């Protein structure tokens, strides 16, 4: 039995042989099923111009899912502050929180959401990469606008997303809950969380340190099936290890034929050692270990597998077994 709440991250992978609109339609069924299963929250990530991930604005997906579910919290995981005017983020998520009280989260991150420099510049209207000071100012301005300008009543719950010490330090300085991307930078997790807790300053948003850790999770009836389902994402990771931009998200059959180099296999295996793949028993053991090691108050599962049915089955198995003694 796992004793922390479980949530989910939707990255909207566009599967080989399908269209982005098919992925978009799947997001509704996904949100409704997680709502029924009792997951605490579902967040949407911001991506642009990717062959593997749909460019669906988190605020739009949040609005649509909130209208078609009843209890699950919804929001961004995250919207990327450098790509948006702070007052617009405040207005968008403040409006959502007023329409769906106590169900909306505003998770803010820094990355550009793309590996393509031209796309990054287009998002920022020609501006270059943001600085640490500019990012801090954008986050602080968004929070200020929520209170001073929008003021629609119930506010969204703000979170800061991070995958480094710098992001954790900013969350501590501003007194925000921290969502840490263990599924991206697992080697950074423990040091960043230690820094966050040691330097946390209470704020009106959060009285004490609060940590959510995101873990890549693939759960299936057998270990072999879990490895099969994890194969497509391993192909994407292999490309990233070589410094390539994202590649299309392959089917498990295509992934099984991918010619991994020895270096790629080692890199993928090293990353996977920090995540949770396998049968329900294996996955719950790994998630429990991550929760204990990090002291996380909540775990968020990201399950980038091919086919909606397999992805939903993974979340079903985890939730069903999480409640077992």
TrEMBL record:
Organism the protein comes from: Streptomyces violaceusniger
Protein name: FMN-linked alkanal monooxygenase
GO CC entries: cytosol
GO molecular function: monooxygenase activity; oxidoreductase activity, acting on paired donors, with incorporation or reduction of molecular oxygen
The organism's taxonomic lineage, starting at the top: Bacteria, Bacillati, Actinomycetota, Actinomycetes, Kitasatosporales
Residues of the Luciferase-like domain: 18-295
Family (UniProt): To bacterial alkanal monooxygenase alpha and beta chains.
Keyword terms: Monooxygenase, Oxidoreductase
SUPFAM superfamilies reported for this sequence: Bacterial luciferase-like (SSF51679)
Name of one Pfam family that matches: Bac_luciferase
